[in-house]
Design a protein that fits this description.
alpha+beta, six-stranded antiparallel β-sheet, two-stranded antiparallel sheet, 2 helices, about 15% helix, globular
């Protein structure tokens, strides 16, 4: 399963509309490279990936079934390349800036399935 993220503008390959497919397992993706800092790798369930051709940077949080809320689910955060503060640190599923820790910054498989269905109609 892959997740569609549509961004408008951005850095890297210039400006314009881009569609990114966020894989269920980012380690198997040919597009994204694991650039997780060694300290982050040792101290958390988060991994950082980058698409070197476009500059898109994402964080993948591995879910822990013994936890509650977002910590129990695998999910993504997409870094905002134009961020100026914590209030616009990530992008939501529509490519709009959102705050660190906000519900909108957590991108899950179900949201993307619904998003794709909406595009197809």
């Amino acid at each position: 399963m892959k997740f569609l993220l549509q961004l408008f503008g951005g850095r890297g390959a210039g400006s314009g509309r881009y569609s990114y497919y966020l894989p269920k397992n980012p380690w198997k993706s040919k597009r994204f490279k694991d650039v997780t800092h060694p300290r982050q790798r040792e101290s958390s369930n988060s991994r950082t990936f980058i698409d070197e051709s476009t500059g898109l940077k994402i964080r993948f949080d591995i879910g822990d079934p013994t936890k509650n809320g977002w910590k129990a689910e695998d999910h993504y955060h997409v870094y905002n390349p134009n961020s100026k503060s914590w209030h616009d640190f990530y992008l939501d599923k529509n490519g709009q800036p959102c705050a660190d820790g906000s519900k909108e910054s957590h991108l899950t498989p179900g949201e993307y399935e619904n998003f794709l269905r909406g595009i197809e109609k």
